[in-house]
Amino acid sequence: MTTLLKNAWVYAPGGVIQGGFVAVDGPVITYVGAARPEGVFDCEKDMSGRLLLPGLVNAHTHAAMTLLRGVGTDLPLQRWLFDSVFPVEGRMTAADIRAGTALALLEMLACGTTSFSDMYFFPWEAAELVADCGTRVYPVGRLDLDSEGLLLFTNDGAWMQRILHPSHEIEKTYEVTVAGAVENAAAELAAVRSVDGEPIAPARVRLLRKGKETAELSVTIHEGKNRQIRRMCAAVGLHVKRLRRVREHTLSLGALPEGGWRELTADEVRAFEQEK
């Protein structure tokens, strides 16, 4: 579906365009400029002078993330955000924000992204799945592109930062199907104490099912280092065929179908914050 956003103040790398246009084809920005682009669009929206920042949701955070790209890439996501991004964000001047935002926009326009999620290394399709929830929501953490299962979204930024902070040590449980030398897979995986030279806390591992060449394991971790379970499996000679998150702290995926969503109850929110 092609959409034309018109009559907007548009923040572009060259400055703010008054009465500008942004054209979008599905998830891709196809045009940003002062003149109306050629062609016919499926939908046109009059923005009535509202400010558009193509591809950006939070200029402070995105500017900090862009300026810090390549710094601390060996850190897990939560530590990178709290130890690197958020402290820099709090000290940024107006000039810093303008430079970082302009750079982020140049990168996004170059690759054609429109989504907040791509800046957070998160596939834009997941945001589309909750588009009908009635408000703009953001992912609490992430799932790797080749993983599946439970993912929380929220419109409460303060709640999200509390949950993501490493001090909470939120447990996450995954069902992992592995192939290889599976005879002692659970014990060997539970014994892993480092990945690629980086110390990790021990995981709780249970054998759910075992076949001749594959096994299904339940793996619970709380550190959330980048691709931690896949790296742990690789360290003991196991190949991950499927990785599915089924529980996060007090919340379980249950029978929620793939691509489905539901609202948390007030009791679930309270339990999630209170239980340790």
Short note summarizing the structure:
It is built from 9 helices and 15 strands.
Low-confidence residue ranges: 112-124
Mean pLDDT: 79
Structural class: alpha+beta
**Kindly, what is the distance between the CA atoms of the first and last residues, rounded to a whole number of angstroms?**
45 Å
Largest sheet: 6 strands, mixed
- The SSE order reads EEEEEHHHHHEEEHEHEEEEHEEH
Beta-strand percentage?
25-35%
| Helix proportion | 25-40%
Shape, please? elongated
Count of helical regions: 9
Gyration radius, in Å = 22 Å
Give the total of beta strands. 15
Report what the structure shows.
Helix content is 30%, strand content 30%. With 276 residues, the chain is an alpha+beta fold.
Key phrases:
about 280 residues, alpha+beta, 6-stranded mixed β-sheet, 5-stranded mixed β-sheet, 9 helices, about 30% strand, elongated
Secondary structure elements and pairings:
Blueprint: E1 2-12, E2 15-25, E3 28-33, E4 43-46, E5 51-52, H1 59-67, H2 77-91, H3 94-111, H4 116-119, H5 124-129, E6 138-140, E7 148-149, E8 152-154, H6 157-164, E9 172-180, H7 185-190, E10 194-195, E11 198-199, E12 204-210, E13 214-221, H8 228-235, E14 238-248, E15 251-252, H9 266-274
Parallel strand pairs: 1-4, 1-5, 7-14
Antiparallel strand pairs: 1-2, 2-3, 6-8, 9-13, 9-14, 10-11, 12-13, 14-15
